[in-house]
Protein 1
Amino acid sequence: MDNLSSASKNQELLLRMEGISKSFPGVQALNDCRFELCAGEVHALVGENGAGKSTLMKILGGIYHKDAGHIYLEGKEVEIHSPHMAQHLGVSIVHQELNLMPHLTAAQNIFIGREPRAKIPFVVDDKTTNQEAERLFHLLNLKLDPTIRVADLTVAKQQMVEIAKALSFNAKILVMDEPTAALTDTEIEELFGVIKQLRKNGVGIIHISHRLEELKLISDRVTVMRDGKYIDTKRTQEVTIDQIISMMVGRTIYETAPELPEKPSEDIALEVRNLNRGKALRDVSFQLKRGEILGFAGLIGAGRTEVARAIFGADGFDSGEIYVKGRKVHINTPGDAVMHGIGYLSEDRKRYGLTLGMDVKENVAMAAMKKFLNWLGWVDFKKATTRGQEMVKALNIKTPNLEQKVQFLSGGNQQKVVIGKWLTADTEILIFDEPTRGIDVGAKSEIYKLLNDLVHQGKSIIMISSELPEVLRMSHRVVVMCEGRVTGILNAGEATQESIMKFATMRSEALLATAQ
Amino acid sequence: MKSETKTVQTLFRSDAMQRIMAFGALIVLAVGFSLASPYFRTFDNFVGILLATAVNGVLGLGVTFVIITAGIDLSVGTVLTFAAVMTGVFITNWHLPIPLGILGGVLAGALAGWINGVVISRMKIPPFIATLGMLYATKGLSLVISELKPIYFNDTPAFREMAMGSILGKIIPGFEIPNAVLIMFGAAIIAHLILSRTILGRYTFALGSNEEATRLSGVNVAGWKTAVYSLCGLFSGLGGVLMAARLNSAQPALGAGYELDAIAAVVIGGTSLSGGEGSILGTIIGAFIISTLTNGLRILSVPQEWQMVVTGAIVVLAVYLDILRRRRS
């Protein structure tokens, strides 16, 4: 870390992009953008959602074709027509949504498309494939079995496989599109270890992230984009996070949540007793008070989402009891959960939260369709439109009109539509799973404010989050999970990042023994 | 110790478990029918089951590849008919030498498969629709080419001998297993090697597991997909030749519905319709389950209509067991 500031001085310029423009039907995605990268440099690329970061990188990766501009690799101008060509030129991208084949092994994934061949035509040399993968893992200081199926790896390890794959192309430029979005703090540390190793080998790294704190830790320079335009490039050491944010949003705001909501009442809104499901959930018990935000912290795979899905009736469970307002309830389907006033906002909004191809008002009405039916059983669109308008106004959803298909909204506005949907269904208990994942800074603080408003109105909220600062700022109490168990429940006052991590890594002895 | 645990885990998690269950089911069926009827356990009946499996087994081989890519091929039954008719045209009408006629029949199937592949991968027509189109097209073509009449191979007894004779019987007297059965097992071994050892096999799994990722890895997705459907057509062609040889005639109206048996065999064998998983061994076991069931029920005088009902139930049950197993792990 000490020599970060000197990393890009007097170093070989690997990449220069100039005057890059790109438009899609109806949108000018990029307008006269530039970017440069030196060997051995970690260059952060930041901007709100829709600022054009991913588009710029997809042009570099040969996935999109630029309308105008020039790309120079090591001083020579190049035209990158395809992902294949980008790889040959030494540009590799680790995409936000991992591009792996879950049914194939780690080694098979790394060498897909260029399998080492045996002497017989068309036959794959699996031994060499595995050895080569092993060698790559060794270069990255990773302990990983090349013959393990990718589906059986954690997200973090899958990402390492992607990086090993990128490395195997002798990549000179590695683009990482939000590599830490799904990782926990320890995993991020591991990733940063790998990045440092790569940088030592002279690889230039472009790092796209919404987590600005981590940019300070890992990057040499930072380039800010906004609305498809290049804003500025700064040495990371010379700017503050607040300065970066104000460049991103074009105005000065602070990435701070509103004041912690006032103390909840003592009424119990939801109680879960001894919930069990296979290995995923073991004896999970907790209480949620009315008007409370109960944070759920833990590593990926700790079972937080599983708890949420079990309460919501999405997965079912083997044993355990759920009480809503003191009354025992039987929840076997999401429909039951909604009936008992429980709403679930999935971490994967696009897959589980929204009907992307439908418009704003239809999505808002979706969970409470019955309310919008007239006496013939037809949907009363006037009613739905009125409700949609109310929600757009109340939640400050930025959409040209109610007939806009939600797939064209930004991440933050999509999240607001999901919230509007559950508010329409009049749910008293809302479970937010990673509510701010992939959402830009400005929209984040709006979501926080919304959560705050909701508990003021007497709603009770379970908030699952992998961002510890968010959990600490936004919860009255924090439930920490590890390997399907609740390992600790902390009050906001006594919780710190350290204490949460201690509980989050509290593996049981018995489990450790079987794992070995 | 560690590797042992891993092996056990792998066994329970992977589709190997489905194959073991399928194999167990086959044994249970065979033992059950043997106890129920003395005729079932005769050698002749055993040969009958093998022979009944041969064509469906060969068809299933190609379908396995297609389903692993998360695709489907509805045309294998009528492509089989088409290949049989073409073989008849080549051997009986054109008097080509038998080996050439066989090759022509197999290639006719491969051609149909290739067209499927091109339509699916280049024109981006969903496999269900593309192969449904091929189903109708080959059904019609078979009738047109044969002028609605069976083509017999009466002048070329060697053609029938190729499938129905028994090389094994000559080596081991009394062990008269028809060549068609050996051909099926030979084709299965080749298919297994292609699936597990070659790039075509690797890309078959990759396509079914994550097609977009495969494309972004620089793999010529359209080309390999076409290859998979061509291979499926080729196996259908081989099935057609075997069928023609067994019946000593190319029957232009036979073959429709065979695709369902083939798909059923593949699914019972543990190949996932959502792609990325599957095996040749499973398909062969699946094909045997279907033919053993059909054979046994017939011996027990269960009407053919009810045999179909049972087969249908078995297919659904097999998939349900697979879902239960996945949910647990």
Protein 2
Amino acid sequence: MNATTATAPRNGARWIAHALETEGVETIFGYPGGTIMPFYDALVDSTLKHILVRHEQGAALAANGYARASGKVGVCVATSGPGASNLVTGIADAMLDSVPMVCLTGQVATPLIGTDAFQELDVFGMTMPIVKHSFLVRSVDDLPRVMAEAFRIAREGRPGPVLVDLPKDVQVNDASHLPDHVPAAVQPPPAPADAALAEALAAIAGAEKPVVYGGGGIALAGAVDAFRQFVEASGIPTVLTLRGLGALPANHANYLGMLGMHGTRAANMAVQESDLLIVVGARFDDRATGKLAEFAPFARVIHLDADAYEISKLRTADIAIPGDVTTGLQALTSARSTCDAWKARCASHRERFGFRYDAPGADIYAPALLKRLSEVAPSDTIIACDVGQHQMWVAQHCKFNHPRNHLTSGALGTMGFGLPAAMGAQFACPDRTVVLVSGDGSFMMNVQELATIARTRMPVKIVLLDNSALGMVRQWQELFFAERYSEIDLSDNPDFAALAKVFGIPARRIDQRDQVDDALAELLATPGPAMLHVAIDIKANVWPLVPPNHANSSMLESNPAKTVTEPTSHAIPA
Amino acid sequence: MQYRLDLIVKPAEGALVRVIGMVERRGFVPRAVHATPHADGRWCLQLLVESPRAIETLRHQLEKVYDCESVSVSADARDAVTGVAA
């Protein structure tokens, strides 16, 4: 007996609330409306903490951020029709980045389904390609099975979102005969095959230029410690994907940086020269590999992943190790790599080609500001970001000591992700510092959630990098569309600091680099939510950049049309 | 390259749409579809599909579909898919 059963007869909606409580859910994000009203009635007597957002996309992305930061299942709720369709982007984002979520949607009563009733929408059909699984509950008697399976599926194996569509009559009907909810057991992934592990050990021992290529699957598999032990024991140079950042601390001696389109020169060139890639929880995403046919052309591939589907999907694995990543890494920790000259070469390249922060001028240089932010914020700070140039600057210049401290929309690239995701992360981790780094384009896509942050007094610190343009689109138009700028001007942005203040959030604007240290200190010291609005140069671009459909060895360091610098290619200078 | 897929699919709402949608989204063109119900309600689904992509990737993806109980693959067997002209 719990809160939802203690005060009233249990209908379907009350049973659902009871199931959420039993699953350990504490916080849910949502927006009420017609067909989900019985569930909102049940919330009155529930222990669940409901966060009323200002747009359903904010609910889905807040639940998404909550799940990313905590590893727990994020839960969002919306009514039928537009409420449900507004969840879609947040659900898709969770699907593509493997984030565990359960999304509850109201639906018209079962007799009305298929009649074009008011706010009837086939969200079950709409979301099929972007969910791990979904249920349309036709009877209250199905609730115990559906709710248990929804949470099991969301958690098990490669996590993902599960949608549960709840017709209004199912919520209203009597559920007093239903047993209490029992969470379903999650099956662990199978152990890797011994023969493949033995083959991998031999390959590592024989490699002259091995590189570890780690991705988001490391944290998803709960294998961060095992990954670090393997890298530490083997001494093999290591690169990480955008979603893998933090799997190895940024200051680790083996770490060469992020690989890919905006990766470091040391990371990309090591991979291109490698004779053995040990791929852990990564999926050869095109932003990481560049031109796939020319990616790591000399390397054999060992691929460990909990999701067998990812192995040999895009690059054939010479040694496939599907199954439990932790077990696999532990078995490989006895591997010894003796390629000292290679390790020294990679280490020297990391030092030689490190980022520089001495840009001329008095304007604020965003990479330097983000580096400074990372230095002055607590080491366990969670940094959420949006999508665009600032997202890549965060990846390049902020230091992460765990992947769950870096919330970024990696696969879907969802502008508007950051503000609600940061809010969700702050609810999941109320005692941690949570910083949102956003851009002026992305920020406006879910700006309404400032009201939610203001209401809840969630102490999210917002660093808004404002170049009065859609910066990444502008950069690509500059480089690849002959400077034919099309629809990237945002010079009529609102006064963001004033906007924040209207919502009751203290804010400050800066535009000179000698203001940075003081402003960051003030931001982090401000109780409750706060914003730092940072004006930056519209012409600032993200470097390095591998042009699309080029090998990762072809890295631009500046606009070749404006300098004599050509894409550097092939081997790293000795 | 054409392949034949033999699947056992739970009689759940949306299951057939989910499977065929997955085939198309992953870059395979359905050339023939034939579904018959077992006595217990489960669907026996035969698909003839065509794509230059590796069929193993599709097989692994279909195995992840919650309502899909089994998947087997064989090389081009156009005549074996009954009920719909290939």
Protein 3
Amino acid sequence: MLPVQGLTSRTVLTDRQERLAYTRRLTWLAGGVLVWAGLIFAKIVSLQVIHHKDYARAARQQQELKVEIPAPRGPIFDRTGQPLAMSIPTESVSVNPLRVPDIGIASQILARILNLDAGELRDRMRRANEHHSGFLWVKRKIAATEAEELRSLHLDWIDFQTESQRHYPNGELAAHVLGSVDHDEKGNAGLEMSLDPELRGRAGQEVMLTDVKRRGIEAQLSARPHAGLPLTLTIDSRIQFAAERELAKGVALHHARTGSVVVMNPYNGEILALANYPTFDPNVAPKPSEDPFHRFDLAISVPFEPGSVFKVVTLSAALETTDLRPDSPINCNNGVLRLPGRVIHEAHRGFGVIPMHEVLERSSNIGAIQIGFRVGAQNMYAYARRFGFGGSTGVGLPAESSGLIRRLNRWRTTSLASISMGHEVSTTSIQLARACAAIANGGLLIKPKLILKQGESLTPAEAPTRILRPQTAITMRQMMEGVVISPHGTAHRHVRLAGYTAGGKTGTAQIFDVKTHHYTHLYNASFMGFAPVTNPAFIIVVTLNGTTGNGGMGGAVAGPVFQAIATEALRVLDVPRDLPDTEAEPEPEEVAPADDANDLAIADLGSPEPNVMEELAMQNATAAAETGPKVPNFRGKTMRAVAEEAASMGLPVSLDGSGIARAQAPPAGSALHEGERVRVQFAR
Amino acid sequence: MATLAANFRKDESVIYSEDAFAAPARRATARPADRFRLRALPNEDVYFSAKRIDNSRILKQRDPRAARECWSAIGAFAVLAVLLAGALAPTVWGTFAGYQLQALKQEHQRLIDERSTLEVQEAALTSPVRLEKLAKAQKLLEPRPGQVIHLDPHADGSMAMNLTK
């Protein structure tokens, strides 16, 4: 047992020492806590201030996902709501060549599923691997079955990207109107090109907060998507189909080279059908070897000498500017007319003095020239211009030709005679359609229209211009009906419609060969007409290029095409009949078939001066040299993309090297002169 | 390994050098040669003994105040739990709703895409080119003008005008 005294003194010492020890411990503890807090604070400063951006970026990369909100290209519908062009999402396959375990096996697997050349794919993958490229397109816009089969392999080096693909569900239907798009869904022809800014959508983007399994929790819109504007065309796919079918039949039957048809509402200018032959499938990308001519919109872009259909302008001008009436006698000089330096013969047989309406019915060239002389050059030029010849119609399709009618001061001594029967003037089918519509609608020149609605808003119609008095237009309609119903009418045997009246004018013009500077024995056979006569529901212009012989005249060749299309259009549009069924069949033949040959407008074969087509070609060449087809920027594109784009624009290209386009001549934006090629140099 | 108590008493063992508490430690260090001897444990001279207590005759007296305090505590915790749940619920609900919303958005986009695909397919199936082929295969003729009769719907929307009313 401890002594009490000793215990007491020791206790006092112990308390003091204990306090010291306690204080020391507390100091150490406080110091420790301070250091710990300091370290934490330093870490916080490091996290929140010094490396804030890095960690925030890392966190965003881990937690956030940028998701593209698709904005598909606007669909295109016909006037009944039938889709003509639509974009749907489709998948494209790419690989990371650096992650492919065995390039040989990988290329074989991919080539088998995607129907590719295994050797070529292997080479591409090897090259990409050698260049340490982490991305390689294998095949773009693949089929759903192919994507499904590839996904089932669960290979982590195969990546899928969603892209948009343009579909034209009706194939070749209205191909020239619609046009086509390139790999990046940029319009390169037709309305797809001219209305590309409206049709093109702008994809949006949202930032999605994801969990550890990359499932979306919350999304925040960072860029609003703008879908392409849907377009509703004035085209009626049923009439369009009938037009294409009958045109193809007509071309094949008469061994023509090309053809075009325009069906238009004469009152508001709405184009119900616009067909060309040959045509193309816009679903199929143009191949470098493909003839770009197939993609030319002949009805819009390719002018021709109209021949006798132009006599409608001559006679309209006569009714407006002279005292000539349909029954006024016209001396057709028994088929021979001597002009200064030129003798004009009637194409088949001559006529004596016949009434003016018979000049149109029989398509007398000398009669038309005589009428033209009465009209005079000044009035003839003025009325040709009034009808819209020599100027663009503004239909809204790319590469529209204005045709050509020379200025009055450049007319030669026989120009009036030539123009009166449809030579020395070049027109397009759409221009003829507009002129015909002016007669069908009572004398108003209207602007052809292809777009019915943009989005939900109707496209406004432009105010028409009066070019003829209503009574002139009605008289012309009656005379044009005579071409169809009169026994000696050039369209009598070919155009009559069951249950409906119809009027029109045939035309046959020799084709001028610009290269040889000669008129050939090939014809542009045309018919422009309307039905019914009293209140026309539509006008149709049919042109077949490259027909021959007496059987290749406008009435015999283009007339039946008009008849078939008109019959179908009258049914589709549910137009009330204006004739009893009993008058459906044509009356017995009264004229010899060879009388159709009178329709041929006699060209001035001996003229040493440039022909109007030649002049137009020269003008186009000059324009091409000045403004020309613009050379696009090929740099950075693959060889395939360059070839496709060039083919779609009809540009001749010369491709050198391999890989990506690095240089080109002429440079982007410059005009390509005729006969010149775009040289594109490719390199890795 | 030293116990916590031994650690706390490390300083005291120096101070109470004469103290009996320090004896075992000293004894343990005094003869390190005997490696088979058990090391002294700290506080080994503290003995515990269990004392039997008979509380069978003790009756627990009912304490209303304690019970009230107990229930108050339970209530307070319950309220706190409810408040906490209430505070957290919108966040949790928002997270789940976010999952659902994103899933629905994806479904919506998928359906739009599917609809576009079906519309393209429908357009291809009703294409005039295809219908013409089918009609020719079935030897059908094109109707003449006026041969097509358009039916006007009844007030109830039925279209069969040619059937008996």
Protein 4
Amino acid sequence: MHEFELEYLNWMPLLWVCIFLIIMVLFIIIGKIFFRNDFDEMSEQGLPFYSGTSDKMLQLITASNLYWGFKHTLQSYFDGLNRLFISDIGDFIQWFIIIVAIMLLIITGALM
Amino acid sequence: MVSFRTERKHPPYAGYKYMFVSSIATSFFLLGIAFLYAQYGSFNIDYLKKVMNGTVLDKIAIVMLILPLAMKCGVVPMHMWIPDTYSEAPAPISSMVKLGSLICLYGLFRIAFTFGLSRAQVSYELGMLFILFGVLSMFVGVTQALIQKDVKRLMAFHAVSQVGYMLLGVGVGLSVIKSGDASFAIYGKIAIIGGLFHVVNNALYKGLLFLTSGIIVRHYKTRDLNIMHGLAHYDKFTALVFMIAALAISGIPPLNGFVSKLIIYESVFHYNPLLTLIAIFVSVLTLASFMKVFYSAFLGMPPERRPVEQPILVKCSMIILSIVIIVIGLFPQGIIKLLIEPAVNVLSTF
């Protein structure tokens, strides 16, 4: 039996964590030296900027707004899925029978 | 337990559906056992493997044994009970049902390897079917999850998607196990290790996700992501724990999900690079949908009221799961050598 070689994994997490920490430290040092230090979170600078409306609830981008383009582009795909899987028990049995038939055809070699 | 909240409209229906689906699955499973017993007069798997002749009735029995287990794992296209059940059950029960599904997955692999490698000689066909079901589950699960606005349904669809990774890894190993060339030694066994390792990892981060989703739903008293905003202002602990679980399921290093996914990517790439490409694309979509949950539930304007402080036991369980997720991500060798590799050796011995 072939021995599984873990080296195959090519995953050296401690090295990556060290690299990440070094980059973080460098970033903080560079930030302290070169970044502006007049930011005050407690002042108006810390408040979010909303444009277009003063209504707080309208300012909120909700979950349905996210990936709108993705949903819109693939609308026909999602409509198809909704037609195929209506989450009804009858629909469930129908799919079960279809898969039984397909598996039997493949496993028994009836398609060969 | 699924219909625990009987005062609401949907949980009893979800419980009834789960019961119905389980009954159908169990009936078919018993039918498969009956076919084998009628022929060989034994229930012993090891004995059956030795005496199986590869008759048509044997193959029908194998289908009858495998399909109910696949149904219980939520493999597409038999997955629609999963979002209904997981979303209506209380959060701890969802974790337990998920664990039950993962145990069925091990049963599925056990049956497939044992009888697939017997004289029935159907390991290649079963491997190809696993790959097909795996890719379907990954893609359909994640695309359905991405458009959900119900936080628990979203997580349930991800449960379907993650089962796809496991089936893909194990399917690749199963399809090359009898090929006679060096494919199994080069990547087949590693693919199975990846698939089984993903089962363990999935149990950990999925459990954590269901627990955090329970806290989110408890605070907002709704599962609608559109209504949620800004919980991280008051509950940074839950936000951090959710982030760890979300990054783990998305396969971001250095967490445990990354390691098992990396093993699956690398081994499946040898078999067919297109499958790896699909798996990576699904991971990207997984990250996108969890970013949506994190943004909706934790970021934005602070909520109108402060959340209730979580009991210390709930926090402890979430801390333990988070630590295990990180430790397995950093030191995967131990668990692979101690748990996964012996299991793969047992499965693939013929």
